[in-house]
Amino acid sequence: MTAYLIRRILNAFPILIGVNLITFALFFMVNPPDDMARMQLGQKYVTEEAIDKWKQQHGYDKPLFYNGGKSGTAKLTETIFFQKSVRLFLFRFGRSDSGRDIGADIRERMWPSLAIALPTLLLGLAVNTSFALLLVFFRRTYLEFGGVTGCVVLMSISALFYIIAGQFVFGKVMKLVPISGYDSGPAAIKFVILPVVVGIVAGIGSGTRWYRTLFLEEVEKDYVRTARAKGLSETEVLFRHVLPNALIPILTGVVAILPLLFMGSLLTESFFSIPGLGSYTIDAISRQDFAIVRAMVFLGSVLYIVGLVLTDISYTLVDPRVRLQ
Amino acid sequence: MVYYTPMDISRIVSLLGLCLLGLCACEGPLNNPYPARERQANIYYASFSERPKHLDPAVAYSSDEYRLIAQIYEPPLQYHYLKRPYTLVPLVAETMPEVTYFDQSGQPLPADAPTDRIAFSEFLITIRQGVYYQPHPAFSRDEKGRWRYHHLTPERVEGIKTPLEFADPGSRELTAEDFVYQIKRLVHPQLHSPIAGLMQRHIVGLADFAADMARRYREEKTEGFFDLRPYDIEGVRVVDRYHYSIRLHGKYPQFKYWLAMPFFAPMPWEADRFYHQPPLQEKNLTLDWYPVGTGPYMLVQNNPNRRMVLASNPNFHGERYPDTGEAADGPAGLLRDRGKPLPFIDQVHYLLERESIPAWNKFLQGYYEASGIGSDSFDQAIRFGVTGQARLTDTLAGKGVRLQTAVAPSIYYLGFNMLDPVVGGLDERHRKLRQALSIAIDYEEFIAIFTNGRGIPAQGVLPPGIFGWLKGPEGINPYVYEWKNGHPVRKPIEVAKKLLAEAGFPGGRSPATGEPLLLYFDTPGGGPDDKARLNWYRKQFAKLGIQLVIRATDYNRFREKMRTGNAQIFVWGWNADYPDPENFFFLLYGPNGKVEHGGENAANYHNPAFDRLFEKMRNMENTPRRRLLIEKMQEIVRRDAPWVFGYHPKNFTLFHSWLHNVKPNMMANNTLKYMRLDSADRARLRRLWNRPVWWPLGLLLGMMALAVVPAWLSWRKRRQATAL
């Protein structure tokens, strides 16, 4: 397994370089350093000298990919791409274009993102698997038909609607929870309740249908028929046999997205004013802060790769037939 | 397996209910976003949607930055809170600056000397004695007089989250040196002050100083603190501990307004030195993030991702509420606190609200003291009476909410690129084309549709409240409006059509080709949100038979088009830096042309007659002669019509009944110190407005219980079913 992991890590490097290259090219095609300087310097009284000074101070006064004025390796290293990208591989994110330490910001903002994403994932998992099991339990009845129809309806509604409706009903009409905001420590609980509930409800439709498919596939297998033939009740069959076996794809799917939970949710964080990493990225894009965008895209890529590796490992743990070589 | 009897379930539910009731008793309203300890505290709550980029007074320039730093940094002057027109008064200056003029040989000139003889003007500023900075570790010294926190190591800042967490903060008296240090910082090689270029043109020796510092900075390759103190600016001088002078090129009376902006607030060098320590910078503890000032408030918490907290400065120098104001201020209760020490509010909490809907709902619940009105919620808040007067809806009026409106010192206009061969040029033909369009584009309709009536149509360059703006028939744009029944009325479209025909485009068509005249409207955006607005512009041009082509692009490309003169027609805006007509007319001054000179004259308008008048007017005091010149300038630009004068936006602010001393002041940003709030009344109303409503929850649980019934029936049926 160690050899497999080393190989996967080595394979990750070209992927990360590629992602970096594409992000860099896209960003600079839309947004050259002059425009970035203008955006940072404001609207009024922006002179060419000020733009040059900003570019020089932030290291944007070099060529993008190739520095013909230098010799040797400096032709490649004395470029914006090299200077801005290499340190990322050491997880040194540097300073944002507005001067803040990006690493410190990420460390601070990942906790609120996790505070929302983790309970939403775990509780959502419990709710969705329960509903899915119920639908399987009542399969081929009008209850299943009604349940699936309900899931399709829930899936068809925009996530934004759930957020606004949740804020309206629970925050404005019923006045049970704050409409938006965040606090640290135990005081965060009252702010987390509504986004978590909204996140769970918004995910019920798709989650339940997906898990129902997995369970249905499982209940048709031979061992289930054998269990029934032995005289086990349907409840016992579902909970003792179907659920543990169907959990394998569910758990591996969850493991894959676990690292990405740090990255937060753009919409939820924005509407509930949660100071997480999702809103951090959105802010950076709207401010054209390339340093942050680059760091967040890189981090997202790394976490995605980590997620895939963890999935592979989790396969070996939950299914003894799988070996990583 | 554990089984619960109905009795157990009942007990659990009761226990949960009791816990919930307990929670209600402790916290007040369940939806209260603030801790219980703050329930009756003298705290002002406000929201912000985007974190400020900079809090360094040399760099900060936008309104969201000023609303914060203006409470902390104190420049020499400020705007009187109540008086109108806007009047400058001393803040940390003892008196208004003494201005002396000098000729080319350095000889003093009388105050009424002709402008062309004045080679230099010198502002002598006397600052107040006994003004102290907020407590801060940058000033702290040990028993032997050594700096306690100027040589920090990573270990010493372990666990420190704000500079105020250092154990022994210090302070010191404000001196003239601090003001001079800040002027040097405007051209600091590590900073990007937006007014650096502008001030280098005005302050004697600042350009040379900037070049010298840039050279030294390059040579020294300093990463940390780059000390500016050993170097001097030729025109800026510390006279003694409480006096300093600034020498300017020529006459520039508007400079006094700059002295009321945070750019010229004092900066202690110790703070600059302190924040340049790497262990602090790695924790994002910088001068750009934690200001050090003498103002009524100091920043004690700065988490722009969530909350920024200002607390009253214990060293504040004891300013008092104004004794005088306008005639209506007394009856309006705005002089009730006259002579009382400021500030009235202990803390100000700014909370992040990224979206307008939650912020608005929290205002309605009493969790914010004041609010603007978004277009989504406008109908909930405002209705217009038969006279067009904006009034609050019954719901808001019933809550005791009050409304204040004020016209902003801003203008939005539709500009023509005067370098463009089709719409530009000062000849009669092109002028008539622009005049025709000025009549056809109905900004009254625009204001009604797109701003919910929050604006007044512009009659010229100047908004109300700026010297030179005229009310009544004298103040209207005679090329676009007529004065009828006591109101300006837009001229009929037939007049525009006639002008267009005289311009050579009868019926909006080119006589040579017979094709409709094609004009191009350059704009950033162009997404679904802009569609209605852009269609509206198309329709306005279509009234004259002109076909308008929308060239939408992203903001960066749009700015590039403007810089290179490739835009034809565009919409632009300007918000005044200070209440002087010069700050509006310079937008049309030829040598400020955007394409040729990179200035703020986006239309690239260049009329020598206008420029001559501007050069005379800009350096004058507000005298009848200046007013006469302004009238002439207005007449020239109205006739030439390089802009279709759009509108001046009108700000609508709502505030709750417990907030007192609120008067809109569109120039001053340091107004929080005048506000007073009745926190007991606020707590009472919050409780009243936020009683939990439980029945929808019961309804929901009932519906879920009902859904269980068919499931149970189905389950029972299955249990009872036989195999065959």
Main beta sheet of chain A: none
Biggest β-sheet of chain B: count, sense, barrel? 6 strands, antiparallel
- Supply the CATH class of the largest domain in chain A: Mainly Alpha
Radius of gyration of chain B: 31 Å
Most residues in contact, chain pair and counts: A-B, 63 and 62 residues
SSE arrangement:
The complex is a heterodimer of chains A (325) and B (724).
Chain A lengths: L1 H29 L2 H9 L6 H10 L16 H4 L2 H6 L16 H36 L4 H15 L2 H15 L15 H31 L2 H8 L4 H24 L8 H6 L5 H11 L2 H29 L7
Helix pairs in contact in A: 1-14, 2-3, 6-9, 7-9, 8-9, 9-11, 10-11, 11-14, 13-14
Chain B lengths: L5 H22 L15 E6 L14 H7 L7 E3 L8 E3 L7 E5 L5 E2 L10 E7 L49 H10 L10 H7 L3 H15 L15 E5 L2 E7 L5 H4 L10 H7 L2 H4 L15 E7 L3 E6 L34 E6 L3 H9 L5 E2 L6 H4 E3 L5 E3 L1 H5 L3 E6 L2 E7 L11 H13 L2 H8 L4 E3 L23 E4 L2 E4 L2 H10 L15 E7 L3 H15 L4 E7 L1 H10 L4 E7 L6 H4 L8 H4 L10 H10 L6 H17 L2 E13 L3 E2 L15 E2 L1 H11 L5 H26 L4
Parallel strand pairs in B: 1-11, 20-21
Antiparallel strand pairs in B: 2-3, 4-5, 4-6, 6-8, 7-8, 9-10, 10-11, 12-23, 13-14, 15-23, 16-22, 16-23, 17-23, 18-19, 24-25
Helix pairs in contact in B: 4-5, 12-14, 19-20
